[in-house]
Design goal:
This protein is of the alpha/beta class. The protein has 9 helices and 10 strands.
């Protein structure tokens, strides 16, 4: 199935070429190369501090990079930053939102930024809060009073309100209860199965091994291993071992 998807996709939805990023004298990314296609649930994994979040920060335009290029849906994230940002929804491990707002006001605000019409907003809003077990009453109080898990659910809903072509998730299960994690896993799989791109980092190797179509393991500032879990199903059972071996364990 993935072979067919990749053949039909003339260009990848995410394309990273020779990406370098340094902090002062410290080189974190030393030439990341990666193509991800529509219909893929793609895992981007590595140990702490290896550059996963830095790569995502470069993708979404939060950090400038020293060398290379990134395109999202064909848009260069530097030269066509506004167009590129319209193509993705992003969720960080640490939820960030305007806490003075109510949850509903925040979602309405996000929808307005992306030009979502009232009818589409109401349909998507009701569907998404239902999936993630956020009640109407929850969304009528200021976000400042939310738990970490509720803020994370709110950010997940906000990231999908405008049905982006690319869904970027950086450790999205942090702070979520087991019921929310299970629902999120279903949503990620469904989103990819509808032809969208899901790009996820996670320390939960079991989650990645069960859900993802392909997985990249990052080490020493580059993609050290790129594995197709659909073509090699046994890797789903051995991904933890492969991960440990990558780092000399």
């Amino acid at each position: 199935m993935m072979d067919q998807v990749q053949t039909e996709a003339k260009t990848p939805t995410i394309s990273i070429k020779n990406l370098h990023k340094s902090y002062g004298q410290k080189q974190v990314l030393k030439g990341i190369n990666l193509d991800v296609y529509g219909g893929e649930l793609f895992g981007f994994i590595g140990r702490n501090g290896i550059g996963k979040s830095t790569t995502i920060d470069c993708m979404i335009g939060v950090k400038r990079f020293n060398e290379g290029s990134i395109t999202l849906n064909g848009y260069d994230v530097v030269k066509e930053s506004v167009e590129a940002k319209k193509t993705f929804g992003y969720v960080a491990s640490e939820p960030t939102c305007y806490e003075i707002m109510t949850g509903y006001d925040y979602l309405e605000f996000i929808a307005s930024i992306y030009g979502v019409g009232e009818k589409e907003f109401k349909n998507n809003y009701k569907y998404l809060i239902g999936r993630l077990a956020l009640s109407e009453s929850d969304l009528q109080v200021p976000i400042a009073g939310y738990s970490h898990g509720m803020k994370q659910k709110l950010c997940l809903v906000a990231s999908l309100l405008y049905s982006p072509d690319i869904w970027i998730l950086d450790e999205p299960t942090v702070g979520l209860d087991i019921m929310a994690v299970e629902e999120l896993k279903k949503m990620m799989r469904e989103y990819a199965d509808h032809g969208k791109t899901v790009f996820v980092t996670s320390h939960n190797i079991e989650l990645v091994s069960k859900l993802c179509d392909r997985v990249a393991i990052v080490n020493n500032g580059v993609v050290q291993g790129l594995h197709d879990l659909n073509k090699s199903p046994n890797l789903r059972l051995g991904l933890s071992r492969l991960f440990i071996e990558t780092y000399g364990g």
